[in-house]
Amino acid sequence: MTDVEAARLQMIEQQVRAWDVLDPRVLAALAAVRREQFVPKAYAGLAFADTAIPLGFGAHMLAPKVEGRILQALAPEPDDAALEIGTGSGFFAACLAAMAGRVRSLEIQPVLADQARAALDAAGIAGIAVDTADAFAVTPEPVYDAVAITASLPVYDPRFEGWLRPGGRLFVVVGSAPAMEARLVTKVTAQAVRHDSLFETVIEPLRGARAPDPFKF
Length: 217
Prior knowledge:
Blueprint: H1 3-16, H2 24-32, E1 53-56, E2 59-61, H3 64-74, E3 81-85, H4 91-99, E4 102-107, H5 110-122, E5 128-132, E6 144-153, E7 164-176, E8 179-187, E9 193-201
Parallel strand pairs: 3-4, 3-6, 4-5, 6-7
Antiparallel strand pairs: 1-2, 7-8, 8-9
């Protein structure tokens, strides 16, 4: 076993599994996608570390255990259509593609979108549409089975439920530092949704997301 493969296995066993990510399909996806190919060269030594990695433009590559929890919560199936909001490095989109049927990813920053496309191409991963777009400017259609927002919403915005078809699942982190709540929002029917609290974390806000109303005295 090479040093890189040993580090990947350690990441999965000591970080991801330790955070109650036990779905074998999720673990297989994290093992199959070469994370080191998506990390900026300046942070190559942190490819398998239990930390968020800066990508520039205020964006970060999520810690492996968080990515594992998102994938496990969404549980994408091979026939599912999946959407990611916030492409970043392209790694999470690649993991989604290892589990879902079709993947679309939106990235507002053109440089990051270009870098993600290049990384996916270099890794030989096809079937992912990376669009340079502002999620708040896109008209939602209920065509997705799984939607992952990889940045936070200081205030929950129900517009993103509009991307889901009945039975679809949305992962979102809501709130402000130091305590944010990760949620799974399930579209039970065309008119009804269910919110389930998953865990606490802190990630940067989605660009353009509404800020909380200031306190009024």
